[in-house]
Amino acid sequence: MTVIRPSVSQSWDHLDRLESESIHILREVVAQSAKPVLLFSGGKDSMVVLHLARKAFHPHHLPFPLMHVDTGHNFPEVIDFRDRIVAQYGVDLVVRSVEDSIRQGRARVRSAQDSRNALQAITLVDAIHELGFDACMGGARRDEEKARAKERIFSFRDEFGGWDPKNQRPELWDLYNARVHPGENMRVFPISNWTELDVWEYICQEKLELPSLYFAHSRAVVARGLQWVPITELTPAREGETVEQRSVRFRTVGDMTCTCPVLSEAQSVQEILRETETSELTERGATRQDDQTSEASMELRKRQGYF
After folding, report:
1. Is there a contact between 222 and 243 (Cβ–Cβ < 8 Å)?
2. Which of 46, 82, 145, 250 is deepest in the core (most CB within 10 A)?
3. Rounded to the nearest 5 degrees, what angle is found at the Cα of 118, between the Cα atoms of 115 and 119?
4. Beta strands 66-70 and 36-39: pairing type?
5. Omega of the bond prior to 236 within 30 degrees of 0, cis?
6. 66-70 and 93-97: which strand pairing?
7. 153's torsion region: left (phi>0), alpha (psi -120 to 50) or beta?
8. Global pTM value
9. Is residue 261 within 8 Å of 248, Cβ to Cβ?
10. What are the per-10-residue average pLDDT scores of the chain (307 residues)?
11. How far apart are CA 278 and CA 221, in angstroms?
12. Long-range CB contacts (< 8 A, 24+ apart) of 243-248?
């Protein structure tokens, strides 16, 4: 277990404050909730929250399981990393599959290549009711997207998993209210006040492991609008497109049908930090195809139960 070290610079002072706030939030969830769960995909943000949780409750075992809502379209490198971390840390993992929701008729797709990102909401809400979770923690941040900036840290959801930005509870003086009626739940964002740069600085400070996709590697891609689309079985090149082999890295590692890399030569956390400091594109705006249309807006998906 990593020991909290004294700060050595202004940057680390800032990280210490963020870490302290996040640990307070995690402990509040456990103190107030009957059956919390930590949503864990193996991505950088969920890895940071898992690390914070281990610090918050060290030396004891985590007082909640992890859960991954698997779209079936995840990058294999991320699933392998997820399973290795779960085994290495000795934590409990629950996996629920969008594929099962499709087979049960709970979710529908037009084709096998369709993005399943939004369908995670159906699988997540079903899992919450099945397993009785009353607080779901995750690595979403307010700087990611406009709708996320409207969220409270403890975000109330109704029995259908729906979010109403006008029906949220005040959060004054770091006081949180996690009380819910049966069927309702809270979505909790321990790193809500962090930025992408904060996350990378913390990863650097704590020497956290990450999936290899986050670092520059050679990959077949096509230019599509302002984005570079990875060529996979699910995302083949379209007629007339030219496939190129480019050095890229992923800033986020969601469903491979809607997640794009960025051109990069950064092969270390320090190099990624330098790129992040000068980037003029938001994390999701640069890499997520499903955030580019109003029909698939984050706020609409969150109202329907998306995390």
Report:
1. yes
2. 250
3. 90
4. parallel
5. no
6. parallel
7. alpha
8. 0.88
9. yes
10. 44 86 96 96 96 96 96 93 96 94 84 74 90 93 77 84 77 84 89 95 96 96 92 91 95 88 95 88 60 52 54
11. 23
12. 244/220, 245/218, 245/219, 245/220, 245/221, 246/218, 246/219, 246/221, 247/216, 247/217, 247/218, 248/216, 248/217, 248/218, 248/219, 248/221
Three-state DSSP state, 87: helix
- Domains of the chain, CATH where assigned: 10-201+296-303 (3.40.50.620), 212-290 (no CATH)
225: phi > 0 → left, psi -120 to 50 → alpha, else beta; which? left
Q: How far apart are CA 41 and CA 37, in angstroms?
A: 13
Answer yes or no: are the C-beta atoms of 37 and 137 closer than 8 Å.
Answer: yes
Specify the 3-state DSSP secondary structure of 68.
strand
Q: Which of 180, 177, 192, 95 is nearest to 134 (CA)?
A: 180
Joined together, the tokens standing for residue 286 give 């640069």
Please give the Cα distance from 238 to 1 (Å, whole number).
48
The pLDDT of residue 288 is 55
Structure tokens at 172: 């004054």
Structure tokens at 262: 């960025």
